[in-house]
Amino acid sequence: MYTDLQGKTAVVTGGTTGLGMSIVERYLEEGMNVVADYVGELKMTDDLKALQDKYGKKLVLAQADVSNEDDVDSLAKAATDNFGSIDVWVNNAGIEKPFATADMPYDEWQKVIDVNLGGVFLGTRAALRDFQKNSTKGSIINMSSVHQQIPWPTFAHYAASKGGTKMFTETVALEYAEQGIRVNDICPGAIDTPINAKKFADPKQKAKTESMVPMKEIGKPSYVADAAAFLASEQAHYVTGTSLFVDGGMALYPAFEGGAG
Ligand code: NAI
Ligand code: BGC
After folding, report:
1. Taking the domains of the chain in order of start, what are their residue ranges?
2. Cβ–ligand 2 contact at 212 (below 6 Å)
3. What digits encode the pLDDT tens for the residues 50-81?
4. Which of 25, 37, 72, 136 has the most CB within a 10 Å radius?
């Protein structure tokens, strides 16, 4: 637990499913106020309802498309209207859909870039504006991926968006370090969330992915939430512009295991 997080306010985009929801739950457990963003129609799952029942007004659900400027500004407003100011902003929302690059329609490229990279920019900008207004030494956490570094055929748009997130994170971290504002990214490997539901429903594909993780385990969302709690907290007060890999070693060139090569 990170006691300094108690009473602080976080915004988490894509906060009602998968990694986002796990981070929302962890932040609520830490005693934070949380605005969980969703896009389109809200799917009130049993898990989400249970969080609402348990935490009441400390959890606000707000609709915002992270690729839409006005939506992101209104998301920030939902946070300040409810809780006064913002301390932590997690740009977690993201999408992926495979296409051979030669067959990739431009609008599919653009959609992924707009949500995964444009959304990170818009969320970061909204957070920075609030931090500066209130002289908050806030923390921005961007959900990148091992694919900010590992090439991923048929996901060129996705890998480009995550590689862009890395450089964006480092640049903004440098730009605002003097103000005590920290900007970091998390690079999950293969984690069991809705984004992977179809793939992991097939035992062969799941086993194939497991074999690509040196620790031989598909990750749980809570492993990523642990990293998000650390990066939000004072324990990470000297950590900025870094990428925290939460991947069971997936980014360590597993093909070289055992001395191959
Ligand atoms: P997920 O599909 O459950 O989460 C994505 C969330 O983003 C959903 O809640 C979705 O509604 C939301 N979203 C999509 N478009 C949006 C938009 N325009 N505006 C607002 N919200 C939008 O899957 P998961 O795994 O939780 O993904 C979260 C993030 O983690 C993504 O950025 C993904 O790229 C990243 N990631 C996931 C990994 C995994 O293995 N699950 C590994 C590495 C990175
Ligand atoms: C993707 C997952 C994939 C993981 C490892 C993530 O960025 O969202 O679908 O399993 O990388 O390849």
Report:
1. 3-248
2. no
3. 999 999 999 999 999 999 999 999 999 999 99
4. 37
